[in-house]
Amino acid sequence: MADTTAPSAGASCLERLKNYVKTPKGFILSAEILISFIIIICYGASHTGGYSSVAICEMIFAMVFFGIFMMGMDKQFLLVNWLWSDLFRAGIGAVLYLIVSLINVIGGAGDGARIAGGVFGLIAGLLFAYDTYTIYMEVKSTRQHTAASTGDGV
Prior knowledge:
Blueprint: H1 9-21, H2 24-45, H3 52-71, H4 73-76, H5 82-107, H6 112-148
Helix pairs in contact: 2-3, 2-6, 3-5, 5-6
């Protein structure tokens, strides 16, 4: 008979999810996933749905990084510099969202869903830019700590 008092792996994962969403990085990543999903819905309802590829890619990348950071795999798998990878993901996402959203807002006359997707895309671009800023400040602080800890051989 199975031991019912031991915590299951599913409950452990759910607890990690709840705890990680409460952190600032977890909140930003979950907001990025949510707004990307809203943008996919808006672009899917518009007459030209080809602009949804940026939202799909960025949502998948945010979900992958959310899972990696939530499960603590960034501390176990040290072959990849996760901080710099996340910085590039957020920076590229901010630039792509701003470009695609400006194209849709400017050229979306008569297509309300396309304009709504563009407006949400501008908000997503600002969110990704904020994420880039927070990651950059973390990179900057870690570089200052490692640069200050040089040993004197004199």
